[in-house]
Amino acid sequence: MSSTPHNDVDHALAYPEPPAHPNWRRRGTAKPWPLTADQQKHNRELLDLALRKPRAAA
């Protein structure tokens, strides 16, 4: 018997995830390149700003 209560089951996880769409796959041998230090800094600044900014009421 399962130790998880029946009312605590996430039904979205009841079935396996479908395979990715073929357009999501990379063709050829091109590999993603790493971000530069400036790009990483910019991303950190945007993340910091997003975390500090109050959320809009839904």
TrEMBL record:
Residue numbers spanned by region Disordered: 1-45
Name assigned to this protein: Uncharacterized protein
Q: Which organism is it from?
A: Streptomyces ossamyceticus
Task: List the taxonomic lineage.
Answer: Bacteria, Bacillati, Actinomycetota, Actinomycetes, Kitasatosporales
